[in-house]
Design a protein that fits this description.
It comes from Streptomyces lomondensis. It contains two helices and no strands. It is an all-alpha fold.
Length: about 110
Amino acid sequence: MFRRTFWFTTGVAAGVWATTKVNRKLKQLTPESLARAAGNKAIEAGHRLKDRAVDFALEVRDNMAVREAELGDALGINENPELPAPRRYAAIENRSNPKYVDRTTYSYNRNEDH
């Protein structure tokens, strides 16, 4: 009698355990659950990609500064960091340049009849 009770209880426990495992797996395979899991994976991948892009950009910026300093030393720019002389403008201005056109003769009113 004791053996039968033991095996009966063991069978019930195994059945409950198996049913619970199967129900959990079925819930994981529903379309909503799969969509949620895919969305979470996509967000994680986006964060990883952003972090790598930021690291890459910082590395490029650092290397660019080093190379710029090397080029400045090679060209002698870093020795005398004076700015170049300002640009000189022509003594005679070109009055046909659109910058000098008299704007008072033009009307920009869109509601005016043409």
